[in-house]
Amino acid sequence: MSDRNEIVSRVTAALEGKPAPVAIRNARKVDARGERRGYWVVSDAAGVIMAAGTGEGTFEHCCRTVGLDPADRNAVIDAEGRILTPGYVDIHAHGAWEKSFDDGPDGIDVARAGHAVHGTTRQVLSLITNPVDVICRNIRTVRATMESGRPDILGCHLEGPFLALARKGAHDPECLKDPVPDIVDKMLEASGADPASGKLGCIRQITIAPELPHGIDAIRRFAAAGVVPAVGHCDADYATACRGFDAGAGIMTHMFNAMNG
């Protein structure tokens, strides 16, 4: 456990770090177009990749452009032929290393470290069904963590409480709710969203069963606030699901799993 604590501490410090110039050389790039060896990449002080390619002369010039000495082994990473590929972006996971994203700031640090060491560089944190006040507290925690300087956290995904009882899966049936306007307002307020001004909050995605009495209206309201509604954990028929997508749903949660059809 002490080793894991050390990893969490180091990874969290790295994820909280401010952008700085970085250069990687001698990598094996792998992407949809295939594989290239001897590849390098250079980012500027804002953390933005400003040049990439092959050829040492160009690499050294780009390093100097961002204030890096290409011969400084502490500033330039030699990949030694290892694979260089874009990091994973995860939009649906509830935690890692025995911690949930619902477990407060420490739980977020541990769980994010558990994903980061396996290559997930950006993540939407999925929150489980709970009483509404607990969900709002967890939303505010994600928001505060993001505002503290965590570019690796893209926001949160609310998987519940607006789910069909018959398709609840592991979610607590006592906490399931119809998405009435008052609850929607509370969640958007907790997220920091202000639909009137166009300000986005920290809720990036929310799973809703469209057949609930206020399901379609809630999909419209969340979509208008910049949230991506997902159809999932539902018992809807085809026509109702289509109404959900027409209202603004843009993704599915557990397609053909925890729903009928």
From TrEMBL:
GO terms for biological process: N-acetylglucosamine catabolic process. GO terms for molecular function: N-acetylglucosamine-6-phosphate deacetylase activity. The keyword Hydrolase applies. Keywords: Hydrolase. Gene3D superfamilies: Metal-dependent hydrolases, Urease, subunit C, domain 1. PANTHER family: N-ACETYLGLUCOSAMINE-6-PHOSPHATE DEACETYLASE (PTHR11113). Belongs to the metallo-dependent hydrolases superfamily. NagA family. This is N-acetylglucosamine-6-phosphate deacetylase. It comes from Escherichia coli. The lineage of its organism: Bacteria, Pseudomonadati, Pseudomonadota, Gammaproteobacteria, Enterobacterales.
